[in-house]
């Protein structure tokens, strides 16, 4: 990697400029001691035979760490340690692995953590939706995408995300919205526009409404009205983009409700947005996104969905346990044995430590 001191908007702090003659260490080979112990590469497959993307996600985490390191973020070292040692329980009969122990950095832009979060969020939302359907079989679902104008730096992004959270709360209390509302789940996503390098922040909202919502114009909110509600709630002087989709409960292959759940359980930020070929751009984007997402809650539930989330005793998909993501529920069998995989910095892959 060719490191230049970038000449863009963020500032490098002065304190560390002379730590070692101006050069910055990127790689660490503390772990190379392990590389001789075994040459078996970690292979972790789901029950359907799909390989879990540990290596890809860790490689992306390493890229992210490198950018944070150049930007001199304190948390860079924590991000670097994310998922470096993975302990699995392997089933004696099937050889199937189940993640048992590791340490995750829980940073917002970390690909490893976002992958685990998305799995967890998706599995939690599925459980919640199933329970809502059980209790309220007549409930209907509406999928909203709420957008505002793009912003151009981290400070604006941070402010805009706070405004949107507030605006959303306000809009949910509007009489016409509230009267048929059973609950909601919302997830915020930020994308980068590659042409002008601006940021688009938007909310994906799965609304659960009473069937009366569709009865007549007194109850039904059409797209034009949603635009006006969102505009008023956000105190905007323009008509924002609002997408409204009615979710059909059943479908031959993947149900619409599942598609809507998947859409809200997507990664909040795509790593390809800050991993382009242009390093200065990447640095700028990471700096902006770190500032923009600082202390922001990106997932939240309301109404009956919130109650059920609590009743089912589900922990926080954003900051909770990222080991048990529940994509495969069953417990490890009694005959399970341990397997430890360690990230090898030189060979850029996970290798199994020793043998059982
Ligand atoms: Zn992480």
Give an overview in words.
This protein has 356 residues and is an alpha+beta fold. It folds into two domains: 25-106 and 342-356, no CATH class; 118-319, Alpha-Beta Plaits. The chain is 33% helix and 18% strand. It contains nine helices and nine strands. It has a five-stranded antiparallel β-sheet, sandwiched between helices. A four-stranded antiparallel β-sheet has the order 2-1-8-9. A hairpin with a 6-residue loop joins strand 1 (85-90) and strand 2. Helix 4 (154-172) packs across helix 6 (223-234). The radius of gyration is 23 Å and the shape is globular. The two termini are 37 Å apart. Mean pLDDT is 86; it is low at 1-8 and 11-37. The chain binds zinc ion (ZN). The site of zinc ion has 8 residues, from helix 3.
- Which percent range describes the beta-strand content? 15-25%
List cofactors, ions and other ligands. zinc ion
Shape: globular
Order of helices and strands: HHEEHEHHEEHEHHEHEE
Concise synopsis of the structure shown:
This protein is α+β, with helices and mostly antiparallel strands and 356 residues long. The chain has two domains: 97 residues, no CATH class; 202 residues, Alpha-Beta Plaits (2-Layer Sandwich), CATH 3.30.70.1910.
